[in-house]
From TrEMBL:
<feature type="modified residue" description="4-aspartylphosphate">
    <location>
        <position position="58"/>
    </location>
</feature>
<keyword id="KW-0597">Phosphoprotein</keyword>
<dbReference type="GO" id="GO:0000160">
    <property type="term" value="P:phosphorelay signal transduction system"/>
</dbReference>
<dbReference type="InterPro" id="IPR050595">
    <property type="entry name" value="Bact_response_regulator"/>
</dbReference>
<dbReference type="InterPro" id="IPR011006">
    <property type="entry name" value="CheY-like_superfamily"/>
</dbReference>
<dbReference type="InterPro" id="IPR001789">
    <property type="entry name" value="Sig_transdc_resp-reg_receiver"/>
</dbReference>
<protein>
    <recommendedName>
        <fullName>Response regulatory domain-containing protein</fullName>
    </recommendedName>
</protein>
<dbReference type="Pfam" id="PF00072">
    <property type="entry name" value="Response_reg"/>
</dbReference>
<feature type="domain" description="Response regulatory">
    <location>
        <begin position="3"/>
        <end position="124"/>
    </location>
</feature>
Length: 129
């Protein structure tokens, strides 16, 4: 089973992600965390062969923002191969540069359900083989 770890503090967005992933019927297990700190704690207890296939982060979260979560994840050698994507309403040229340098896909958070569904389909096609 393929696994996506989502760090998202907005309950409505969490529910929408779950609905879209469930509708895909690709056998994808979506695990949701309310912030980057929770996601990192979960990663730390997993053996290498159980790491997720994709980490999807919101930028603006309590405790650890997406960028701070990335820095911690990338500092651990065993997490470097993990694909990471950030979706956000946050616009900042320095942040976009950081993402590009780290090989992280940066997506603007869509305004509608249909646009978000298209984005999730695209992410699944890119990262979940």
């Amino acid at each position: 089973m393929k696994k996506i770890y989502l760090a998202e503090d907005d309950i409505d967005d969490q529910e929408i992600f779950r609905e879209i992933i469930d509708a895909l019927d690709h056998g994808i297990q979506l695990t949701i965390f309310h912030n980057g700190e929770e996601l990192i704690k979960a990663l730390n207890v997993l053996p290498n062969d159980e790491l997720p296939d994709l980490l999807l982060l919101d930028q603006n979260m309590p405790r650890l923002k997406g960028s701070e979560t990335i820095q911690q994840i990338r500092s651990e050698p065993r997490y470097k191969p993990l694909p990471v994507a950030i979706y956000t309403t946050y616009h900042d040229a320095n942040f976009a540069r950081l993402c590009k340098e780290e090989g992280i896909e940066l997506f603007q958070k869509p305004d509608t359900f249909d646009e978000l569904s298209k984005l999730i389909h695209r992410l699944v096609a890119m990262y979940i083989k």
